[in-house]
Input
Amino acid sequence: MSKSFYYFNPTTLSFEKAEFTFKDMAKRILWLVATALSFALIFVWISFYVIDSPKEKRLQKENNELKQKLKQVNQQLDVMQIVLNDLQDRDDNIYRSIFEVEPIPIEKRNPFFNKDTKYDQIAEHETDQLLKIISDKTNQMIVQLSLERKSLDTVASLVNRKSEMLNSIPAIRPIKNMYQVTSGFGRRYHPILKTIRMHTGIDITAPKGTPVYATADGIVSADQGGSGYGITIVVNHGFSYQTLYAHLSKRIVKTGQRIKRGQLIGYVGNTGLSMGAHLHYEVLKGGNPVNPVHYFFSDITPQEYDAILESSKKMNQSLS
Output
C-alpha cells in the first residue's frame, strides 16, 4: 500500500495531497547525498587532522626524540670543533715554533674557510636541515682531522730529527776530568814553525795513553785533517758539524764506523808536529773552525766552564 503525503496550503488553509515529480525526487536525493558527503568529509578531517591515532602519537614521539638526539650530536660536533681549533693553534704556535717550521696557512688547514656555514634558526619540523648541518660539519671535521694528522706526523718526524741533531752537536769534553786548556782557539805561537799562526782548535795536556772520547754521534771520516797532525780521527756528525782529534798514539775506530757520543775512539799521544803528549781538538761548523770551548755544556758545571774558558783565552804558544 503506497503512502500518501500531504502538506498544509496557507492560501486555502487546508491540507492538500502532495504530488512529487521526478525532478523533485532527484533534488531530494541529491540533497541527502550532499549532506551525507559533508558529514563524511568533516568526520575524515577530524580523524586525520584533529585527533591523532595511537600510531601517529608514537611516530610523533619518536620524531621528537630523533630531533633531540640530532641536536645533541650537533652540540657535540661544536665542542669537538673547539677542541680541534685549540689543537691546531697549539700545532702552529707551539709545536712548529719549537722546530722553527712555518705554521700551516689557514686556507690550507681549513678548505671550508671561505664557505658560508651560517644557518638560520632551526624550526622544530626542520629535521632535514639539521641533518644537513651535521653532515656538513662532519665532512669539514674529517678533512681538518686528516690535515691535522699529517701535520702531527710532520711534527713527529721533526722531533726525531731534532733529537738526532742534538745528539750530533759536540757537547762534551773529549777527555774526562779536563778542567783547563793548555792552548786556546785563536792566533798562537807555533813552537816548531816559530811563527804566529791561527790555532784552529784547542790543546789539552794529558799523559800518553789517556782515553779520548767522541763528543757527539757521527761517522768516522777518511779525512786526515791536515799535515803535521800525526794519528788523527775526523768524525762527521751531520748537520754541518765535524770534530777532529789529532796527535793520537792510537785510534781504535775504523773509517766509516758509526759511533756514539761518549764512545772511546783513541788515546792521547805525541805523533806528528808535537812538543809533548796532548790532544789537539777541533770543532768545525759548515767547514769553518769554531772555538770548541763554547760547546762544552753537557758534562760540566758553570764554574768548570768558566775556568776552561778563562784558561783558553791566555795568549801563549800552542803545543803543535
In short: The longest strand covers residues 241-251. The chain has three domains: 6-50, 62-168, 186-312. Residues 116-120 have pLDDT under 50 and may be disordered. The longest helix spans residues 54-98.
